[in-house]
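URGENT: need a sanity check before tomorrow's submission.

F., can you look over the DUF4237 domain-containing protein record below? I want to be sure the sequence and structure line up before it goes out.
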Amino acid sequence: MARGAGTVGRSPRRATAYPAAALPGGCGERRGVLRSSNFSDHNEWPPNRSFDGDSSKFTLLPSSTIDRYGTEYGTFASPEGVPYRYRALKPGSDGRPYNVYEVVKPITVDAGDIKGWFGYEGGGTQYELLDKIINLVRDGSLKRR
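Structure tokens as predicted:
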């Protein structure tokens, strides 16, 4: 299998897994805040398109599910269920629309680990799609769930 090829829910580098210490009330949340590089500056997006290191080409397969906080005019998503604290989202994004999509046609994305930022731990998996979510819904590549 080529580097970066795989199935949804698996990072090109590791399977998506979340430590028990990161559960609500656990010490993982506190450690993430301390590790974040710009806790007090919420106006600047992380470098490298929020990837923690390199991204790899990756194919999302039909029947996989992804999710996104924010409008359908964005190009970033994650495997469904990645906890909010493991994403690099601006504070307040959890109050934005949350949508889940089913992959209908194979979609090539850039995939990788998320850099800790905005006081959040990071470490989840993110996908940068080559087109806006709305366009992928319109062309039948994604279906709203």
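My own read: The chain is about 10% helix and 25% strand. Residues 64 and 103 are 5 Å apart (CA to CA). If you see anything odd, call me.
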